[in-house]
Backbone:
């Protein structure tokens, strides 16, 4: 059976690793702060001493860390993944990183003889616990095929998207649509209520028709309650919309609706809502 | 038991009337071309001789005709609904008409002593046949309460929205969101594919996440197949977006995303796609 | 010599009539409140007793009143211009009115045997006094030719634009450009100053280059001084932008920049600046 | 008298250097291809052998080269300006370069003990010949003061704008306004003509009013003649608009009109007009 390494035991990583252990995989975990590994060892995991040693002893090593700097740190250096990975072993980084970081990690691994997949996920804590993440995989196809049984445990779908970079592109496209939808949703909810319609009724009618979707349901309840408790920070959405519009620029594509929605999120940032939930864009519209 | 009149036996009206008959209601039908009534008479309906006589003999009379001119025609004149409706009888116009037409009909009925509801529907042929329309009712609340058993047969939901005009407003808000969503969806599908992503994969990932909705599924398949067979004509969507933006103007609300999406649909009209499906907006983006 | 009638002696009309008198024309004036005519009689004008009598006795009668209702009022009724104008006499309405009002006046005059020109002006009090208005004439070409000597006294240019309605269209197009320019100017002034540039220096550099124009000079000084004393009310500009975008809709033309600038002016209205100068759009951008 | 070095004798540089020579300055020129210096030597210039030697022998050395790579090349390396400039001598780069290139050059010069000004210009061949450029200077104020007599020969204005980077910011702001104005101008010219107005008449009326500016005059003639001979390439304008919107992003400023105009220029690029004049944006609107 494939032996699995798992680096990074934060909220997301811990939930994902537990699912792998419970599914019967032979899992070796590592975390910068080793105490966080205790709970998983109790469940049956081995504990590694460094990213290097984990990568050297496991068939496939997964990583799930918080940002590009952390993703680079566990890959590079004398104790990093690249130093340990041997000919043919696999490394799958599931962290959300930018294109150039992903490419740097890919180069480091393949130069060391390893195989690499980027596999950023769509979904937060609950889907990670439930094993219903959407995993956007791109890179080495043979590694993807071998990793599928593990992906099936962690996610509800895990399409293979092509070369390194395509996972990040997919996430950008989906988030751009999400931002545009939230902007038009905010405008529609504002217009309806100013026209005298009841907010709850609006949500009910929307929920019954062709445009019904989980986001409108969740964010709709939030904006009627004027509760903007952060789940996806508004400033991150604006950053993704900016990057999506910039990608359109590079690919010679005019995206007026996305560009306008981007400016709406910038307006919300300017109004001081950067660290609130994306639903707070409604506050600058209503 | 409430006796029901039904005026207008086009594609929509015929399906709706059949459902009422099958549910056991005492239904009297009328159509400008009387031959269309035959099939319903076979199923158990009575046949009326004029809108006036139907309205005079039934507790509640429904109408479902094609446009504002037809809606006015069956209400006004010596053989119209207003001439027949007596004190306390009800008239429910389910046609899609503009605000001022709806108000003219409301005035004609109430001046004649009748009660009035506007009840435009969301949904096309299939939901009409399946009894799963969304009915947006507004006007006389007592009539609404009496009509609910019939609404329950024709639709899957039929919220009461307030004064005459609110049904039309609700439809405008929903269609505005629909147009904005289709514009950002077209941009995202274009961006993703230009970035090298497979169109089918894009649709799969979207279908699995928080923004999944029936419209993206249906229109997504259409645009990948480059099939713009009309279900909702693009020019009608653009008209609705124009009216929604104008309503924002009247209510002192700035709607930049809707306004931009409106211009995208105008661009598609300019390119010659007025009579194709709303999905054809994609052709001017890609 | 051509005898001239002049109806309406408000701020604009009085200045224009004085210029005609001083230029040696034979001028008969009329104003709803006759006391306002005294000053002009002193300068040599005759005083008429009604729009009807003025139109009946003068070769060409001009009108300059405040709104469409006033423009209709002096034209229609037993004492109106149409009742007095004979075969071949001319009537030139220089008031700013909408298309349909202009057409109603045109019909009333031509049905009575008269000739008609619409001639809305661009420019306010100072250009009216200085005889440097821009006169946008459209309608009867023979009347235009006869009126040219008078136009030359009142304005610095008075192009003939075609059929009745073209004068109003020209004004709409110019005001739409004005609104779009003011929106991008506000954004540029905000961006420059946030980037650390001095506002005065920005205006100097703009004034020296290819985009230098009187409006940027005048409004630029206003916005640096935070002085929004009304010269052109913001709500009127927003109305013109709305009409221009609607005209594009009718003519099958997509106008995304105008539509976006229109939403910026709506945002300013929503923020409470309707009755301030158009320059106040800057306050919602900075 | 101040001795002046001039590096780069292309269309712009040659015209500027000639003006300095004719004004009586002691000028030493250098060009990568030395033959281009001959004409200036005939007029009285000395000829330098390298950027290093020119910078070492002149009080102030100006450079005007075609792009960031060329600007870096003449500054760096064993024969570059930085290698020759001594304590207190001045270097003024008038080329149009991006922020980071300008900062790299500034660092190289100041680390070598020299003083630095960035001074990008607004204006093309004709203003360079006529000495009517707009010079946007930023950096060392003492050097600016010493260079003023030379700036006065080359330009009609040369404001001092602050720290290195402010010259580039000013140019970006002005070009952003230019792009936005050209977009709304294209929309207005299209709308007017579709409404039946004569294009020439439109330009005349615009030229007489508050929005009259040299750019509308020049570009207006071009678009009526359907002549898009390049003076300012469309792709460069789009790049500047993209950078301006990105600067707004960085400074937390929402710029919807600029963002929308940027998408209009992207639409024009997509349609294949990248290398035509900026006026070609009209072709995608009309």
Residues:
């Amino acid at each position: 059976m494939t032996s699995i390494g798992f680096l990074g035991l934060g909220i997301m990583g811990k939930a994902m690793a537990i699912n792998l252990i419970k599914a019967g995989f032979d899992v070796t975990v590592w975390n910068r702060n080793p105490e966080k590994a205790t709970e998983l060892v109790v469940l049956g995991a081995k504990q590694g001493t460094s990213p290097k040693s984990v990568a050297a002893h496991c068939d496939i090593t997964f990583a799930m860390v918080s940002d590009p700097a952390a993703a680079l740190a566990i890959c590079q250096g004398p104790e990093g993944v690249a130093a340990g990975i041997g000919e043919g072993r696999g490394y799958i980084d599931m962290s959300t990183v930018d294109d150039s970081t992903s490419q740097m990690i890919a180069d480091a691994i393949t130069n060391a003889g390893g195989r690499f997949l980027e596999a950023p996920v769509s979904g937060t804590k609950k889907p990670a616990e439930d094993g219903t993440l959407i995993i956007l995989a791109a890179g080495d196809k043979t590694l993807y095929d071998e990793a599928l049984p593990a992906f099936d445990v962690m996610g509800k779908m895990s399409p293979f998207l092509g070369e390194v970079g395509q996972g990040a592109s997919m996430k950008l496209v989906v988030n751009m649509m999400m931002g545009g939808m939230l902007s038009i949703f905010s405008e529609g909810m504002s217009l309806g209520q100013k026209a005298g319609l009841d907010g709850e009724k609006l949500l009910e009618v929307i929920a019954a028709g062709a445009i019904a979707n989980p986001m409108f349901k969740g964010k709709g309840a939030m904006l009627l309650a004027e509760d903007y408790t952060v789940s996806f920070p508004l400033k991150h959405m604006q950053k993704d919309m900016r990057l999506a519009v910039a990608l359109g620029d590079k690919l010679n594509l005019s995206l007026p609706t996305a560009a306008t929605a981007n400016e709406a999120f910038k307006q919300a940032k300017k109004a001081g809502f950067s660290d609130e939930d994306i639903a707070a864009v409604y506050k600058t519209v209503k």
